[in-house]
Amino acid sequence: MNQPESKIETERLYFQDAYLQEFTARVLARETREGFPVVVLDRTAFYPESGGQPHDLGWLNEVRVIRVEEENGLILHFLEKELAGEEVRGRIDWPRRFDHMQQHTGQHILSQAFYELVKGETLSFHLGQEESTVEIGLQAIKDETLTRVEELANRVVFSDLEVKTYFLSEERVSSIPLRKPPKKAGLIRVVEVDGFDYSACGGTHCRRTGEVGLIKILKQEKIRGNVRFSFVCGFRAWQEFENCRRSLQQAARLFSAEEAEVAACAEKSLAELKNLKKRQKKLEERLSFFEAREMLARSSSKIISGFYPDRSPEEIKFLALNLVHQAELLVVMAAQRDQYFHLVLAASDSLKLDVREVIPVLQAEIEFKGGGSPTLAELVSAEKEKAERAVTLAVEFFKDRTGLS
Ligand SMILES: [Zn+2]
Fold it and tell me: Under a CB-based contact definition with an 8 Å cutoff, are residues 60 and 85 in contact?
């Protein structure tokens, strides 16, 4: 952006009053960037993307502001379409901004709680659309300690401390216990959570800690040898609680149980399911013995083949094994599961064949993975529509190769 006059900066109204939702301003400059009209105002309540806090959205007159950036002291408002006039009325999307203020102030409190209890320094902060994260300079943290950190942060919230913002010169900044040294020189903007935390920060914050609402850590993960914590504050924490309640109620209804019993019910059901699966497998094995016997009674051919889209790969494997054990046979069978088809190739030992010889022939047309032994091979392919073709190809190959029919 061309400087309209040297050393002119946009006056940041949110520094004095983070609660200002509407303002009037004068257009200082206009241009087009990335295809969007961009305006610079003499003053603005719009917060530009910086320091981990996303930019505001809103309107200048009736034109939507879709992005806000800072460049050399000027605030650039990216607009949805051209904006007429030199005097404009600005209005920020307040629910979005207030949400950012809750998450951001919550982060200051949480960061100081980590520092006070375990000397964990905040290395970075990111305010995301659903969750925010802080990366803390710790290798690990015990669950009990994390609970204490969260408890301290929430005590600060419920104490409803004042959050003050003021500017200090570089020389005077050493007189306060800043949590982290400032990144830039000159006048430093300090955000103080009354006597609890002192940070150099240019963001927007709540005026009292009570407005932050509940602070809740959701999860932790290792990153770059540190721990990154995801958290939510305020309305987001309420929404999270609401979602958890709904899931729990739904699960309790499914089990016809009390909410406190859901975990025990789930554990019991999983154990039962495991037993049933074991039993099912045994029954399938026994059933396939009789099915094989029946098939052999009806057929006199030496090659038995088929495509069974409704049966599991395990079932056709049992069936194929039973067939080749009960008679001198070659079996080619396919089944389907999800996006894949499975091909089972089996031969009686007495045939002295290697069923794997067909694999290169199949692979010339169909992409497969898998393998096996001379008497049993299993192949898997994502080309589901070619299952029947694979069975035909294999049968033709074995007929030519062995003279069996
Ligand atoms: Zn801040």
Answer: no
**165 Cα–ligand 1 center, Å:** 10
pTM across the whole model: 0.74
Question: Phi/psi class of residue 400: alpha, beta or left (left: φ > 0; alpha: ψ in -120 to 50)?
Answer: alpha
pLDDT (0 to 100) of residue 1: 57
> Residue 265's CB: how many other CB atoms inside 10 A?
16
Spatial strand order of the sheet with 197-200 comes to 163-168, 188-193, 197-200
Reply yes or no on whether the pLDDT at 366 is more than 60: yes
- pLDDT higher than threshold 90 for residue 183: no
Class of the CATH-defined domain 288-402: alpha beta
Which residue intervals of 83-233 are DSSP H helices?
94-118, 143-158
Residues of the chain with CATH 3.30.980.10: 98-251
CATH 2.40.30.130 fits 11-92, yes or no: yes
CATH superfamily of 98-251: Threonyl-trna Synthetase; Chain A, domain 2 (3.30.980.10)
- The alpha carbon of 136 and the centre of ligand 1 are apart by a number of angstroms equal to 16
What residues form DSSP beta bridges with 124? 135
Rounded-to-integer distance, Cα 198 and Cα 196, Å: 7
Please say whether the beta carbons of 266 and 255 come within 8 A: yes
Q: How many whole angstroms from 109 Cα to the centroid of ligand 1?
A: 10
Q: How far is the CA of 332 from the centre of ligand 1 (A)?
A: 68
CA 75 – CA 48 distance, rounded (Å): 7
Q: Alpha-carbon distance 77 to 89, whole Å? A: 13
* Burial of 148 per CB tally in 10 Å (0-12, 13-18, 19+): middle
Q: Is the pLDDT of residue 3 over 80?
A: no
CA of 50 to the centre of ligand 1 (A): 10
What SS3 class is residue 304?
strand
Write the DSSP assignment of 34-102 as a string of letters.
Answer: TTEEEEEESEE-PPPSBTTBPPP-EEETTEEEEEEEEETTEEEEEESS----SEEEEEE-HHHHHHHHH
Residues 6+ apart with CB under 8 A from 123: 135, 136, 137, 226
